[in-house]
Every structure is written in structure tokens, then in C-alpha cells.
Amino acid sequence: MVDDDSKEVLRGTTLEVYRFLLKSNKPVGTRELQRALNLSSSSVATYHLSKLEDAGLLKKAPGGFTVSKFLLENSIKINRFLVPRYFFYAIFAIAILIIELTIMKPAVLYREYVFSLVATVILAFFFCYETVKTWRRGNL
Asked: Is the pTM of this model over 0.70?
């Protein structure tokens, strides 16, 4: 399958299975997956695993399945954690805001300084909002 087709597979429970396998540092079997995600039966886990394998996102390994292709565009994998990329933008915007409020604060408030401050607050707010939204939904 092509990358676009692979992305189409990643919806609902299949996406949750893929995210679980991404976080796992070892091969995962069907029973382990069923218990971890509270799936109704091991055949449901097998269905989602084979769906991901057919899309070329997983490969069979001794002891279970492992991820063969990383497809989450809005996330960065750090060890076992998936961190939304907006998180780093939010940290950067908040750091700039702190610098503006502490180091660059003029004795007299100028229009340019206030404009810069307001723009940075808006930027930080939107990056924080996108980070939380991506974390909650588990978006690609």
C-alpha cells in the first residue's frame, strides 16, 4: 500500500493499536494487546494487527508484532512517549514571552512592546491549544 492508503487505515481502534505498538519497545502479541486495550476478544486484536500488517505499518517478529513504519506526522517519538510537535512550539513561545516580560521590559510601555507582548501571548495560546487537542485526540 502507498503512504496515503496506510494513513487511511489509521482510524479508531486501529489507530489505538498502532499507538500502543509505537509506545511499546518490544514485540506485542495478540493476547497482550487485547488485555492492554480492553478489546472484546483476541480475534479483534488479530484483525487490527493484520490490518496494520497489510498496510505495511507492522512486521511480524519473534514474540509478536513491531512497528515497521512511523507515520504519526503531528507527533515525535521520544523513547516510549509520543509528544505532539506543537508542544515544542508552545515551549518556545512561552520562553519568548518570559524573556519579553523579564529581560526586555522597558521602563515606559511603548506601543511596539505591547504589540509584541500581545502577539506572543496569542501565539503561545494557540500552540498550547493545538498541543492539548493533539494529545487528547491522538491525531496523526
From this structure: no
